[in-house]
Design a protein that fits this description.
heterotrimer; A alpha/beta (309); B mainly alpha (120); C mainly alpha (238); B: 120 residues; mainly alpha; 2 strands; 62% helix; elongated; C: 238 residues; 11 helices; ATP hydrolysis activity (chain A); nucleotide-binding (chain A); Putative ABC transporter ATP-binding protein (chain A); ABC_transporter-like_ATP-bd (chain A); AAA+_ATPase (chain A)
Chain lengths: 309, 120, 238
């Protein structure tokens, strides 16, 4: 319990073959990733794929079944020096019912040497948080606003945001994005944002980590993720010719028309062929890409069960 | 910043936007352009993306770096930008315009007539 | 201590609830006792008849009134405060330590409150009508040290029992919380039965301890609950 200064060179989060079972159910089967510090990460994937579980494991809120997790080279579980540099307000965070917003804002700064009262005050004002309301009486949007306020004001080196915009109206979401970027610019740190409202927050991220089927399906730069798949639409035979042996993540049919989400980048040849055979090629948004990966994973599972039975 | 429909990376869109601002004289030669962080907050994008946009313009010779001070508009950059845009005009506008005309069965004369009519 | 203090502050965030309310509950119990004594007095005339005074010496109100509330304080601390502490980067161990210091403060408040009310009771010659709420057999018949010790231990026992259940709930879920409740009940009954069965063996050992016997018993049980809550806390999750 002797206080020592946090390591001056945060190196990031390292996940090595991390697994997590709940009873017999395997949620994370083999998660391996390196997340260097000082970036904004988007943690994406279908509902129930284990995004919140993974963040809980990193922060030691839950215990991993296997594998290794390091924050700045140290196992975070029950390590006060490392955990003090994390902040993870859960989407369904429990507060003591008898606490008002004011009580919470009075107590939490004690947990962080890095706490910024100025940021807290500014966000309370901008979100119009009702200070005298008890935590259990807050609306969904106010709960989100409180979580954002605490998370940003903590200035924790590793800040986890779990679906931070739930219940926020459009203008409050604007405040969230502006404040997040301003805080990040002024005091660079690592943010990990789990979200399924992907396109709205995609631009804030530097890197995306897509979880699917218990593993990291994709980890890449946002620009690369955007270029990682495209949608081609037209008469089925011509679409199939253009796709060739590339992987089709999802397909949708309308009569003789096929709309296929294809993994890979569009080549100049594709464009020429598309122009000649009247196909349209569109960039898939990040949202479409992640959704396609999710559907693809479901199809795979269905196929495996079919084979097994 | 909304992603463009043809899937161009956001940083290119922002670079184009800054170039367009230079063309209309928002930043004259030798003037300082906004910092990575300012661009990040303004366009609501990750600072890394904003940084890529600035670096792209540095690579293109539109901006230059002054150590510790920031990014500045290069001498002759507006003129160079205009020249480059003229060069790209045929590719980006004329060719697709002609292709669509042909698809609709318009002859070159008919298309030229349309241009003259529009320009009146 | 650096990492324990925030957890103590978390426990004390609602000072009224964890320091004042238990004392208020004791005061309300006193009020009710006085009202009852008053009604009896109106029926029989003052001073209260000898039989009533004897019965009031066995008034156990002080023992019954606080545990329920403190149990809930213990449960909420380990359930709600625990979730907050972890969210804001505390370890389980430091959370448990900080909360334990808080438990001691609450129990001190209960003990000191009891002694103050006992002092008033004796100073006012038992509230002028020979009514008793604190100068009772269960609290050492007017001995302030024993009154303090009894209430302090009772409070610690209640808080840690609540903490134990709150933690079991966090660590193992609803089913195991019920199992633990039933198990603990059965254990308590068995212990009680064993005491009665072996009373002729135990009694000579504890003769002269009088109410201190129960203080000692409570202290041992509180220590066991504290250890159990610590153990369960190590595997509690959010």
């Amino acid at each position: 319990m002797t206080p020592s200064p946090p390591s001056a060179h945060p190196s990031g989060i390292s996940l090595n073959h991390v697994t997590k079972n709940f009873g017999r159910k395997q949620v994370l089967t083999d998660v391996t990733a390196e997340l260097p510090s000082g970036r904004i990460y988007g943690l994406l994937g279908s509902n129930g794929v284990g995004k919140t579980t993974l963040m809980s494991l990193i922060c030691g809120h839950q215990f991993r079944t296997g594998g290794r997790i390091l924050i700045d080279g140290i196992d975070p579980v029950e390590n006060p020096m490392v955990l003090q540099r994390t902040c993870f307000v859960h989407e369904d965070q429990l507060y003591n019912d008898s606490f008002s917003v004011r009580d919470i804002l009075a107590v939490i700064p004690a947990f962080y040497p890095t706490w910024s009262a100025e940021t807290a005050d500014r966000l309370v004002t901008r979100f119009r948080l009702p200070l005298d309301t008890k935590s259990k009486k807050l609306s969904r949007g106010q709960r989100s606003a409180l979580a954002i306020t605490l998370s940003l004001a903590s200035r924790a080196a590793y800040t986890f945001l779990d679906e931070p915009y739930l219940g926020l109206d459009a203008s409050s979401r604007s405040i969230l994005y502006d404040e997040l970027l301003a805080e990040y610019a002024a005091h660079p740190r690592t943010f990990i944002i789990s979200t399924h409202l992907i396109d709205e927050v995609a631009d804030l991220m530097e890197e995306v980590v897509v979880l699917e089927d218990g593993v990291v399906a994709v980890q890449t730069d946002v620009d690369e993720a955007r270029a990682a798949c495209f949608i081609v639409r037209g008469r089925e035979a011509e679409v199939r010719t253009l796709v060739g042996d590339r992987e089709i993540l999802t397909e949708r049919h309308l009569g003789t028309i096929l709309s296929a989400t294809v993994r890979g980048a569009v080549t100049p040849d594709d464009r020429t062929l598309a122009e000649r055979t009247h196909l349209t090629i569109e960039a898939a948004s990040l949202q479409e890409f992640v959704a396609a990966l999710g559907l693809h994973a479901l199809d795979e599972v269905a196929r495996k069960t079919e084979v097994a039975s | 910043m909304t992603p463009s429909p043809d899937g161009r990376p956001i940083f290119l869109e922002i670079a184009d936007q800054i170039a367009a601002d230079i063309l209309v004289g928002a930043y004259p030669e030798q003037a300082q352009v906004p910092s990575t962080n300012e661009l990040s907050v303004h366009y609501r994008v990750n600072p890394a993306t904003a940084g890529k946009a600035l670096n792209r313009l540095v690579d293109d010779g539109v901006l230059y770096k002054r150590r510790g001070l920031g990014m500045f508009v290069a001498e002759g950059a507006p003129e160079a930008l205009r020249a480059r845009r003229r060069a790209a005009f045929a590719d980006e506008y004329v060719r697709p315009f002609l292709a669509e005309g042909r698809r609709l069965g318009l002859s070159l004369d008919e298309i030229t007539d349309l241009i003259h009519k529009e320009d009146r | 201590m650096t990492h324990v203090r925030p957890n103590l502050r978390l426990y004390l965030a609602n000072r009224t609830g964890v320091l004042l309310t238990p004392v208020v509950i004791l005061t309300i119990m006193l009020g009710l006792s006085l009202i009852v004594a008053g009604f009896i007095g109106i029926a029989t005339g003052f001073p209260l008849p000898e039989g009533t005074v004897v019965r009031m010496r066995y008034n156990g109100g002080a023992l019954y009134c606080v545990p329920g509330f403190l149990l809930s304080v213990g449960v909420l601390a380990m359930n709600r405060n625990f979730s907050m502490a972890l969210a804001f980067g505390s370890t389980r161990r430091n959370f448990w330590l900080g909360t334990s210091i808080g438990f001691i403060l609450t129990s001190l408040a209960v003990g000191v409150g009891t002694v103050l009310l006992l002092g008033l009771e004796i100073l006012t010659d038992h509230w002028f009508i020979n009514a008793r709420a604190f100068d009772v057999v269960a609290l050492g018949s007017g001995d302030p040290v024993q009154a303090f010790a009894t209430m302090f231990v009772l409070s610690m026992l209640s808080l840690y029992t609540g903490a134990f259940f709150g933690t079991i709930y966090r660590a193992l879920g609803t089913v195991w919380t019920s199992v633990a409740a039933v198990g603990l009940g059965v254990l308590a009954l068995c212990a009680g039965a064993a005491f009665l069965w072996k009373w002729d063996v135990i009694a000579p050992q504890v003769v002269g301890w009088e109410a201190w016997f129960f203080v000692a018993l409570g202290l041992v049980t509180a220590a066991l609950m504290a250890a159990a809550s610590y153990g369960a806390n190590r595997s509690a999750t959010v």
